[in-house]
Amino acid sequence: MSVIRVALVEADESKGIWIASFDMDAIRDYRRRETWGNAYRKPNTYVGMDSRKVYKPFLRSDSRR
After folding, report:
1. Helix, strand or coil for residue 24?
2. How far apart are alpha carbons 64 and 1 in whole angstroms?
3. Which residue of 11, 21, 36, 47 is 20 to 30 Å from 63, comparing CA positions?
4. Which residues contact 63 (CB under 8 A, 6 or more apart)?
5. CA-CA distance, 18 to 35, in Å (whole number)?
6. Alpha-carbon gap, residue 57 to 43, rounded angstroms
7. In whole angstroms, what is the distance from residue 17 CA to residue 33 CA?
8. Tens digits of per-residue pLDDT, 12-40?
């Protein structure tokens, strides 16, 4: 997979508002070709991170849970 880096707007130190135009069809085409979406998700891998249980040494008497 190649990485393309493009500066959309390059601003100097002055204050201001910069407007950039986006080719939405090109962005959608890129995402359709390059983004994996959820094809490779492994939701069961993250189950432990979603738990509300707190284990030592992170138990605190002043916890806000």
Report:
1. helix
2. 45
3. 47
4. 54
5. 28
6. 26
7. 32
8. 888 888 777 888 898 888 888 887 767 77
